[in-house]
Amino acid sequence: MTTKTLHFLLLLAIATCLNGCAVVAVADAVVTVAATGVKVAAKTVGAVADAVIPDDED
Description:
Low-confidence stretches: none
Distance between the termini: 86 Å
Oligomer: single chain
């Protein structure tokens, strides 16, 4: 193999590793945003339910 071929293969291996990290980072960000959205929606539904349903306690 020539030096150029080895350099190309090395750069290709490094690029592949970096793409894997990027995919993990993006997936983590998506899960975090989705979890935050679900948490906010649950709190909102809980607040609306508390406002609509009257308490029996006086």
